[in-house]
Amino acid sequence: MTTVGIVGAGIAGLHLGLALRAADVDLTLYADRPPEDLAAAPLLNTVAHHHPLLERERALGVHHWPAAQFGYGAHHHWIGGARFAGRFTHPSCAVDHRLYLPRLAGDLEARGGRIEVRDVGPRDLGALAGRHDLLVIATGRGALSGLFPRRPEHSPHDAPRRLLCAGLYAGIAPAEPAAVTIGVAPGQGELLEIPMMSRHGPVTALLFENVPGGDLAVLNELSPAQDPALFRKTVLDKLREHHPATAERVLDDFALTHPSDLLQGAVTPAVREDFLPLGEDRFALALGDAHVVVDPVMGQGANIASYSAGVVAAGIAADTVYDELFCRRVARSREEVLLGASAWTNLMLDPPPWLDELWRGLAADPRRADTFTDGFDHPDRQWRLLATRRRVRAFLSG
Known about the structure:
This protein has helices at 11-22, 51-60, 67-70, 97-110, 125-131, 228-242, 244-247, 301-318, 324-349, 355-364, 366-374, 379-386, 389-397, and strands at residues 3-7, 26-31, 72-79, 82-92, 114-117, 134-137, 163-172, 179-185, 189-198, 201-210, 250-256, 262-265, 270-271, 275-279, 282-286, 292-293. The protein has 398 residues and is α/β, with parallel strands linked by helices. Strand 1, helix 1 and strand 2 form a beta-alpha-beta unit. Helix 10 runs parallel beside helix 13 (389-397). The longest helix is centred in the last third of the chain and has 26 residues, at 324-349. The radius of gyration is 21 Å and the shape is globular. The termini are far apart.
């Protein structure tokens, strides 16, 4: 019987494990901490799950937060001086991963997947490879950070392009209709306002994407645990100055829901090699953040991780030999979507001047604004629309 080892218990590892159990593949998932401990952990992310990911949840039987009840169906954009709304064909949904991941870990164990809590470092990979036909590395953190070499032709940045300050807040009147608001403060960064389900019930996630050295970078220097009043005042001041579309809906009881409901940090976008030989014709396959890391500004990270997990699961189920040929076939199968998401996100982090034509065109054409918004479901299609000035003009001219 085929046996697979998965290192990492994030969405990539769990979706892969659930898909493999549906195909009756034996697996062990190696987690660096018990999944139930996540409930008391600091905020992990503010990710939104788009329709293709929700469809995979339905297929796996883990769609515990139905988008019809908990989701939203549109984006409000404030970009380049243009204001426009775009509607999704199918709704998206955002759930705090401190609720989401432990629930899916329970589903995996109930279906026969083993979860082993242990720290895994580079020196452990050879021994683990001897226990499994294929080893999948689904975490890019800790001792395994940078395990797979960067692909420089797809990794233009060697440092973070934004400082991230993400938190869960009460006291913001929801947008009408329910939607994510994406605002751009020229030269300062972006703000994503996301309706999210949390342990507190429905809340608003604010993800500040701040340009290093800019006026908003101060948000990454303040601690709500040390001085909650100063943190609240600074957030309010910066909203009013740089992100009025959200500030105009702030209520008197505006506050961070809890000091642990904040994430401050940064990521360096990178595309890494798909696999690594471990000797004796055994391989480690990269998945999730171990493979492709994107800045969260376009909300693609969890979505492409889940997509990639589905491709890997299908490849494992369709083969019996997990050698270099297998790894290269998997790489080709998932490349267009993953590289499209990475390239599109990097374009938005360093927008060329001609993108202003796009924003003006979308503000003038609601139908194309809907197409652009639906592109969040399909990053490969979005990249084909936006990759060059010529493509943008072709999209707008129809």
